[in-house]
Write a structure and sequence with these properties.
Shape: globular
Oligomer: single chain
Helix content: 25-40%
Radius of gyration: 19 Å
Order of helices and strands: EHHEHEHEEEHEHEHEEHHH
Number of strands: 10
Distance between the termini: 18 Å
Strand order of the largest sheet: 2-1-3-10-4
Strand content: 15-25%
C-alpha cells in the first residue's frame, strides 16, 4: 500500500496553541478519562493514538481509555449520556447537540477546514449544483446537516440514501453521488479504478458551508469542574498530532496496530 502524505500539517494545529508551549512531567496518581472518536480506528485519529502510544497523556498526568467509535457507539450520544469525558465531533453535530440542550463545549478545533464533499460521476449528468435535482445521493446518517444545507441552498430536491461504511453503493452505480472526505473516501473511489477526470467533486467548504470536522468536545460541567484535566488532554493530543506529522511512518504503524486490533 502506498503511503501518502498531504499538505495538511499547518491545518491540524488547533485553537489552544498556548497549551503546547511546555509539557511538564506530572508525578503521582494518573487521572482516568475516556475519549471517544466518532468513527472506527483509522488515520483520522492518528494524533490521539500516537499521544497514547508515546505516553504523552501519561506525561500530562492522564490515563486515557480510547473507546471504539462508529455507528455502534456514536460520539455525540456518548457525551450526552456521560459515557465518555471527551469526544471528537463535526462542528455541525456539536451545534445540533447544543441546540438540543446538551451542554457541550468545543475545547480544541483540530481540523481547520471542512473536508466533507459530494462526489458524482460526470456521466450521471451532474456538473453543477443545480444538476443534483432528482438525483439519488448517499449521505451518512450522522453527517447530514451540511449536504442538506447544500441542497436547500441550491433549491434542489434529491432522494437521500443512507450511506454506510463504504462507497460500494456508489461504485456499483446504485446512487448518482456519494458523500466523501477528501482524504479518505475520495481516494477509495480513485483506488477502485475510477479516474479523477470521470468525477465531479463538490467540496462543501467551497460552497459557503465550511463547518470543520473533528473538534475535541467535552461537557461544560467537565470544563468547569476539571479545567486542568481538559487542558492536559488538549496539550497531549496536540503534541500527538505534531509527533505524527514529524514521524509519519511510525504514526502509520501505530494507527495500523489499532486498526488490526479492531479487526
Amino acid at each position: 500500500m502506498k503511503r501518502k502524505q498531504t499538505a495538511a500539517t499547518p491545518a491540524i494545529i488547533g485553537l489552544w496553541i498556548w497549551a503546547v508551549l511546555s509539557f511538564p512531567a506530572i508525578a503521582g496518581e494518573l487521572t482516568p478519562v475516556t475519549f471517544l472518536p466518532q468513527w472506527s480506528p483509522q488515520s483520522q485519529f492518528a494524533g490521539y493514538y500516537v499521544a497514547q502510544a508515546k505516553e504523552f497523556y501519561k506525561q500530562q498526568g492522564l490515563s486515557v481509555n480510547i473507546l471504539h467509535g462508529g455507528p455502534g457507539q456514536p460520539a455525540g450520544p456518548g457525551l450526552a449520556t456521560k459515557k465518555t469525558d471527551f469526544a471528537t465531533l463535526f462542528l455541525t453535530d456539536g451545534i445540533a447537540l447544543r441546540d438540543q440542550g446538551v451542554p457541550l463545549v468545543n475545547v480544541a478545533q483540530i481540523v481547520q477546514r471542512s473536508a466533507l464533499m459530494l462526489v458524482a460521476r460526470k456521466k450521471s449528468g451532474i456538473e453543477t449544483p443545480a444538476d443534483f435535482e432528482g438525483k439519488r445521493v448517499s449521505v451518512w446518517d450522522d453527517f447530514r446537516l451540511q449536504p442538506q444545507a447544500f441542497f436547500r441552498q441550491n433549491q434542489v430536491e434529491v432522494t437521500i440514501i443512507s450511506q454506510g461504511y463504504t462507497v460500494n453503493l456508489f461504485l456499483m452505480g446504485g446512487v448518482d453521488a456519494a458523500s466523501a472526505m477528501w482524504y479518505n473516501e475520495y481516494y477509495a473511489i480513485l483506488n477502485a479504478g475510477i479516474d479523477a477526470e470521470e468525477l465531479k467533486t463538490f467540496l462543501l467548504a467551497d460552497h459557503g458551508l465550511n463547518f470543520p470536522e473533528d473538534g475535541i468536545y467535552c461537557r461544560q460541567e467537565t470544563l468547569m469542574r476539571n479545567p486542568e484535566t481538559v487542558k492536559a488532554f488538549v496539550r497531549a493530543s496536540i503534541r500527538g498530532w505534531q509527533y505524527a506529522f514529524d514521524h509519519p511512518e511510525e504514526a502509520l504503524d501505530i494507527v495500523m496496530a489499532r486498526v488490526n486490533e479492531a479487526n
